[in-house]
């Protein structure tokens, strides 16, 4: 019985560890989903990513109404100052484009901005396993996801990951 419990614990630990490190590429559903651009156009996520081929990219999922997102803004600005060669893509989970655009201006977010059409419960959010915001994903210069799930308390991990990609 002890062996069975030990094996079960080992299996669960490995499963959890794997889910925390996450995926190395986006699903077809995520890539084909369209996001709203600031100019009002719809852009497929895969086309957004293509724009950054050969660059390291930090993607932040956030919303103007999210207290933890606002609290993390100074850390994002510090990250940008320390990593000027990295591209930054912000994907909002706001409910309206007006609130999203006000949030961009209010927080002076530098980078490219998009908004999920169906917020936290929608197709895009489900396709990237979004369960918390702010959420950060880092993609290396080859287009591989190197950090799939980081939140506002993971800036040490985010900084270490970016340092390892220089």
TrEMBL record:
Domain Thioredoxin: 24-166
Range of residues in the leader sequence: 1-17
SUPFAM superfamilies, alphabetized: Thioredoxin-like (SSF52833)
Superkingdom classification of source: Bacteria
Primary subcellular site in the record, as a coarse category: other
Swiss-Prot/TrEMBL GO biological process terms: cytochrome complex assembly
This protein's GO CC annotations: cell envelope
Keyword Ribonucleoprotein: no
PROSITE patterns: PROKAR_LIPOPROTEIN, THIOREDOXIN_2
Protein name: Thiol-disulfide isomerase or thioredoxin
């Amino acid at each position: 019985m002890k062996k069975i419990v030990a094996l079960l614990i080992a299996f669960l630990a490995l499963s959890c560890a794997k889910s925390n490190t996450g995926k190395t590429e986006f699903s077809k559903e995520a890539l084909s989903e369209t996001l709203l651009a600031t100019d009002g156009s719809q852009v497929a996520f895969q086309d957004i990513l293509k724009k950054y081929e050969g660059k390291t990219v930090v993607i932040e999922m956030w919303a103007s109404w999210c207290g933890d997102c606002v609290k993390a803004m100074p850390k994002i600005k510090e990250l940008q100052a320390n990593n000027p060669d990295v591209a930054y893509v912000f994907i909002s989970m706001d409910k309206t484009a007006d609130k999203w655009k006000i949030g961009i201006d209010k927080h002076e977010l530098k980078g490219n901005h998009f908004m999920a059409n169906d917020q936290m419960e929608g197709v895009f959010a489900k396709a990237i396993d979004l369960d918390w915001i702010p959420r950060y994903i880092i993609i290396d210069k080859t287009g591989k996801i190197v950090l799939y799930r980081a939140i506002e308390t993971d800036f040490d991990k985010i900084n270490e990951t970016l340092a390892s990609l220089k």
